[in-house]
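Comment thread on ticket #2218

A.B. wrote:
> Attaching the input chain for the structure job we discussed in standup.
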Amino acid sequence: MLALAQCLLLPAVHAQGNDGASADVEEIVVTARRRPSDARSVGRSLSVLDLERLGGLPGQTHVQEALTRLPGVNLQRGNGQEYLPALRSPVLTGAGACGALLTAEDGIPLTSPGFCNINELFFAHHEAASRIEVLRGPGTAVYGGNALHGIVNVITARSAGPSLAGLELGSYGLARFRLNRFGESDSGLRLTAVRDGGFREDSGYRQLKLNAFRSGSGRAWDWTAALAVSGLDQDTAGYITGLDSYRDRQTARSNPDPEAFRKALNLRAWARLQYRRSEAWSLVLTPYLRYSRMRFRMHFLPGDPFERNGHSGAGLQTAAHIDRGTWLLTAGLDLEYAQGDLRQWQEGDAAGSAFVRAVFPAGDHYDYEVDAGWFAPFAHLDLRIGSRWTASFGARYERARYDYRTMLPAGRTRDDLTPCGFGGCRYSRPANRADSFGTFSPKASIMWSPSGNARAWLSLSHGFRMPQATELYRLQGAQATADLRPEQLRAAELGASFRREAFAAQVALYHMRKRDVLFRDAELFNRAGGGTRHEGFEIDVSWQALSGLTVELVGSVARHRYDRDYLLGGVNLNGLDVDTAPRRFGGTRIRWRDASDRQVELEWLWTSGYFMEPQNRHRYPGHEIVNLRARAALGRRVIAYLRLLNLTGRAYADRADYTVFSGERYFPGRPRSLYAGLEWRWGASIPNK
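C.D. wrote:
> Ran it. Output below, let me know if you need it in another format.
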């Protein structure tokens, strides 16, 4: 393995977009230790998408367009800003899907640990970020619940760089305005406003994102205060059904659910206070407030019920750093308290058979409140052994408590206590109760660094995911109590990285086993006890083949399988592929950049076929997409952009699955789309030509 490390492949971070990677570049990351660190000191697969070095070339209108540049990440787009995530995992959907990866902006989780949302990355201001850091595999000790499969941390830019204002117009009525305004006293504001008509009927959205910050210092303290606001108003298009229906252009642009919608608001305010007693000792305190609300129509359920949910609360992250040269200790305590609520109701009778009309009644289905608290001490130690070896050890203990109160009668009756036919209503409400969960999560790794530009590491890590409020208190069928446990994931990773002149690369092999996986059984009960296993290989390569010409390759080969006996429809799932788990996906990019700051990039993305349901009887064949992007500086202040996505007009599905009720169903991919924009920059930091 040591020989492999020398001849293979990038420092722990491959900075995408760094044309002509030089050997003395120090890449700084914050996700691994919750403070700025040299990426070469991290013995894990931590990737950085450096949007500043790419100079705005990606121009993503959806976070999926940016994250395809990193290995192991596979987001399937829904309609508008919706998506389903995958990070060293199958695409996560259904019971137990949300909360399997930690999503954050500037280190602050976008939602509270017990109130996850599968789409929560649409709250992050990725359009205005300086970079996106992705830790693949269970999170480090400084991060806890929900960092089961990894961490996506969107880092918003500070006052480095010029101010700018830009306007972009595109296919299907897209218009986007961006404003980044930086002051002279370490303050700034970033604003993005978007309106998109959508390529499908009644599928447009409006979105506004705002980040503002101010920094300062006094004596031994440095401080930053920030505010983040994200609002979304979306008309939602649902699945189209029928085998290969995404290939029919007219069907692909139709919307079977024209009344579906989603409205969401997320507010976060935080301050980071750093006390530095000396170069060897520092303390960081990060208090924060969060408010999140959402309302949408559940067009995927009989009766098309409505849901309104939200939570608000406060938290505190603490971390003390002690650096003694041969060892570095990080220890702290995280606290959070949140109040959440959820209401689901249906305004009329469900369409369908007598059974459907009986068990999906009109009226209120759920109406409850939850008070929740989290307590988590942690410690992480890096121990330098000689000049080439570093051993790391970490551990985190996390405790969660939920106090639940229902505003409706407990049981599976209608809201007026009258019974449903056919044995009872589909929806079941638990009686008032309190639940507590605790788990201990250890980590260890060893890293060998023969030089500053080559590393190899072996890591053993544990991740966990606490039961979420909706899984405990939003029950179905005859279930009155959900006896759940934290999901546990044990992972081993072998990785290597290498950087030499214009060539940089990283590879990783991983094996993971997950236990106490939440699943919904044939009786519609939420149960713990499922199991899956995950093995994969990831590669990330950048090569400056000629002056100004860079070639990049990102690829993932993985197998995600059920790892416990479970009969579904007469089929034992043990050993079968988890549904929606392509075995291969990735992308290749060829980018040319000249001395006048003109760039052209050709991108080829591919996804292999995958099974659409657990029994592995129906399969989506996969697809390939080609995108073209260009950027040109028109003088010192004006930059023009052009993006042509799905260059060949390929008919494909962003997502494909199968249900016994609908058969094959799809979210069709976006047709050929053209976007063009101008950006005006000003300020003292504009480079001279």
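A.B. wrote:
> Thanks. Noting for the ticket: Helices lie at 2-7, 63-67, 249-252, 354-359, 469-473.
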